[in-house]
Design brief:
heterotetramer, A: about 500 residues, alpha+beta, 8-stranded antiparallel β-sheet, 5-stranded parallel β-sheet, 18 helices, 22 strands, about 35% helix, C: about 170 residues, mainly beta, Glycoprotein, Type 4 Pilin, OB fold (Dihydrolipoamide Acetyltransferase, E2P), 2 domains, 8-stranded antiparallel barrel, 1 helix, elongated
Chain lengths: ~500, ~500, ~170, ~170
Amino acid sequence: MFKKILIANRGEIAVRVIRACHELDIEAVAVYSEADRKALHVRYADEAYCIGPAPSPQSYLRTDKILEVAKKSKAEAVHPGYGFLAENPRFARECEDAGFVFIGPSSKTIEQMGSKVRARQTMIAAKVPVVPGTEDPLRDLEHAKEIAEEIGYPIFLKAAMGGGGKGMRIVRDPNQLAAALRGAQSEAKSAFGDDSVYIERALEKPRHIEFQILADNHGEIVHLFERECSIQRRHQKVIEETPSTFLDPMMRQKMGEIAKQAAKAAGYRNAGTIEFLVDQHRNFYFLEMNTRIQVEHPITERVVGVDLVKAQIEIAAGRSLPFKQQNLVQTGHAIECRICAEDPANQFLPSAGLIKGLRTPGGFGVREDTGIFEGWEIPVFYDPLLSKLVAWGEDRTDAIRRMTRCLEEYQLLGVKTNIPFHLWVMRNDYFLQGDYDTHFIDTHFSKENLIQSSHHKEVAWIGAALEAWHRDQKRLRMMLSAPGGGSADSPWKLQGRREALGLD
Amino acid sequence: MFKKILIANRGEIAVRVIRACHELDIEAVAVYSEADRKALHVRYADEAYCIGPAPSPQSYLRTDKILEVAKKSKAEAVHPGYGFLAENPRFARECEDAGFVFIGPSSKTIEQMGSKVRARQTMIAAKVPVVPGTEDPLRDLEHAKEIAEEIGYPIFLKAAMGGGGKGMRIVRDPNQLAAALRGAQSEAKSAFGDDSVYIERALEKPRHIEFQILADNHGEIVHLFERECSIQRRHQKVIEETPSTFLDPMMRQKMGEIAKQAAKAAGYRNAGTIEFLVDQHRNFYFLEMNTRIQVEHPITERVVGVDLVKAQIEIAAGRSLPFKQQNLVQTGHAIECRICAEDPANQFLPSAGLIKGLRTPGGFGVREDTGIFEGWEIPVFYDPLLSKLVAWGEDRTDAIRRMTRCLEEYQLLGVKTNIPFHLWVMRNDYFLQGDYDTHFIDTHFSKENLIQSSHHKEVAWIGAALEAWHRDQKRLRMMLSAPGGGSADSPWKLQGRREALGLD
Amino acid sequence: MAYEIESDGKKIEIEIEPAETEGIFNVRIGDQKFHVDGIPTGEGSYSILIDGQSYEIDIDVREDRYRVVVNGEFYELDLRDERRRRPTVTAVLETPSGAQLVSAPMAGKVLDILVVAGQSVEKDQGVMVIEAMKMENELRSPIQGVVKEVYVKRGEAVEPKAKLLLVEGS
Amino acid sequence: MAYEIESDGKKIEIEIEPAETEGIFNVRIGDQKFHVDGIPTGEGSYSILIDGQSYEIDIDVREDRYRVVVNGEFYELDLRDERRRRPTVTAVLETPSGAQLVSAPMAGKVLDILVVAGQSVEKDQGVMVIEAMKMENELRSPIQGVVKEVYVKRGEAVEPKAKLLLVEGS
């Protein structure tokens, strides 16, 4: 087993990986930007090295700096987390070349699955169903028109090297095609340095259901069942759960087998995720493969009972999987809410700043993975994900109720969060019935929904008045203690000042 | 199901019960003393009523006040938690008489099991093995001598109505018997108002292993396996784990069956615990029955997957147990550390005060049940238990490592805690081998053990110097801003003051 | 103290006075009187007991705009004190022809400007994309009208509250 | 600043000076020099980086006695600054005949007094039982000697640091 691992990441996932290292008796080396000196991952690590200024291109994306730290600290392996360099084949290759074990698949696999077009081609060859569309990048507008007619509108234009919704356009009407193609190409070019774009049919009411894979270096592959990730905002997952309410045991088994088939076709090893789109007729299609640990991995850990990050490390160290497919079962139900510093009442605009108060929920079936603490100043430079709250229950209803009370208990002062949004989802009838697809938020959510409750209206007014009263008292105290406002003043003068302030 | 439950308790267990209520869609009514206005249980509850001044005899032990609140708030049931009135048969009877469901066994059972002598008699009649000793209270010193000779020294003198180590004396030598009997009787009299004392053989290297029981009102009884609670200080449990390393499957099954037999003999219903002492030859003896939820219930919840507090409520509402014995299995291993405000480097003296900083561990397999938060002032009036930290792992080694890293992460500023003690246990060879009994702490622990590590000696010195430097800076700033020390002073004067303070 | 609250277009007068016991307040809303046990539990957070009902309250204030979360439920309202009530009303009357400024809600980079000066926009039409915290955030026009002026360029870094764009109501 | 640390009976001199960059300190212990990146993270808590090694440090100070927890490990030491070093030494010489006061470590109630004035006691012999936070806590004699005086009565409530008992060394 490794003695020391470098974690090329920050925030909650860096903390997550450090914890796994410590539980395996492995020393953890952190890297950090100048904005992160006080961050948890720096403080929990055994060693920590600054790799540059706050903006990630100058720090967390600097492969040279990170490898320098790996050498200096004598780390034997590198864990990339998710985001940043996690799916960058060049970084994986540089690690390999420098003699560090990259905790993930080979750089070749990352490269192959990173190209959406090549990934599709691989899957088609392996008889894994893919969303109907082009196998090759589009040549020009004429080509695009032709293909679009063939598979039928609405269609998606997608960047061949894409991810995270960039270089993506939905086209509902042939008239929009030219403009959309231009937009997608230019966005793809600027985001990925490659303007290749391809076409996929836009499914109706699609659900996003993914399968977790573990593959060791000795040819053994298992799946750890599905995660339902259809609650998305702008192609970003917000809430995930497992099991999916949409799958029955037969479909689950079939998708699991095909997920393993897909992983085999990619020559996969370590932890990975096969993402599927499922239409309302229960047809499922390969969407893409994520060649890293996912944000939402904890729900699988809770329901299947396997520590996925430890498994990643064990596999990278050459160990065989300690279980077979038939040993794995799902127990109960788990839901994850991503707690983000963003304002659900104002278009989810991000909200950085100082955390002035923090009180997190706990108790049976509750897990939190966090990168924050009271007194932490959330930097503006990185992802707004603060923490992941996971509730497990004996069944889905139990899990939802537990999550609801956790969200009610959660107190984070000083920064706006999407907790009120999560609470709204947990009380939404469609969600409660499991009847949702990737359009759920667009279809059902609005700011008005959030503030529709009138249950405690008077209490809210009283609370506001209490806050205003305390603010006025504070203002008064400041005025009275200001130069010339000392206690030597006559009571009459004081009273005059109080009146001027409207404090009587 | 109930619509509203009153929780006649405070601290982490009140929070625990409120959470179960909320997850069952039941309103929770809190009661609180004047010291607890800001306490979590008051803030998490739907309703909260002050029942008197801080000392518990004037508040949390006032059955009249509590029942008055139950009436006023229209609660249908009362959950007593543990401690305070939880095993007070009079309170249970008053609840029953006033028409409230007491969430626990009948007052009759509480009374019967509360008398250690009657409990022993019941168990002997039901053919449950008990520690060899007297069936009846001792008549006098002669009687005591006779019995002691018969069963052999060392013996325990125990209060018939006892609990919590009060009125208990170990006697190793016939010469000590007279004095010990006097002491035990007077302590029993003052603690329980009854000076009855009986004799039990003091086992060698005893382990304390208890079985969790659930019994519904329809005659169904199951056990939820054991908890190993031998890490004790002055008869108070400090660390618990499940499964016990001492039991094999056959012994586990046998003890489980006998635990159910014991519960049946007591006419038991709701959640309860049968405590056994197990000697080094694996003989086990009924010690006592706890007719309430235990502090250490979370380790069972995690390993068996059943929410015990919800089960208590469901049973009290008349529901049948939703599982049978054969549905219950143990998965993995769980350990609980009781985080207490006490100083392990100074005889575990309690340490009240303001919590100036709090950062709790999280991640996979970690649960915390707490009654505290940053800014909370720990009152001197109650138990020093602040929080219960539970780590689950795939096996015992995994759980211990996880607990270790959690304890390393745990930060509580302003109040001394026993966290360094827990860390010492997690690294102790005997504990790691599972080779311990109830004398573990007395045998192996000393303050010197705690500070023997010299790993980071220089870092500790540097840390101390850093703190001293910051303190001096603060002192200097205060001096400089004191009246007459304003910025109008000449630089020479300032420098003089700095020198006087030794700050250069 | 007396305050005026505006909530869902309704105006409510609320009076709050501390009682003799610390932490206890007498509150009047119209005819209703409340005996409020309200203690601060953090910056902008309170534990409130009214007739035994327990509420956890978190409040975020930006100028007169109060965001109040009661047991996880979300409210928005405007609150002014008595003295400032009249001037504020006057100020609204003086605002010229309803021109509305779009300003930066956070530090970030102007990724895209979706409109040009002179262009007509609908209410809630996207006018600018700001990248902040790795997210692209579309800013929308608060009113229907015409873009009068654009103050920033594509690619420019902006500070919180920086002027971005002016829309004149039509 | 220079301080003197007493740890396990050894005396160590330690010098600490802030470097130009905020949060960076130059520390000297004997011949060893350390470049310390040490930032406060709470009251009495620091994050310290030395040559890339990361330490979490919590410190509790009662007079000159420092309790330092480094990554969960426990240390106790005495720290004095240079100026106060000599007077402290003198003070020790002036202490009369080693009489030691047992005082209350916390608020509580005297449950039992296990000795009487004039009685001989061993080091670490229990002398008094105080009930606090629902626990009975036995206080022990810090030295071997004779009980000179008992200042409290059974059943009495005591405040933190209240004088309980005086033991004179023998």
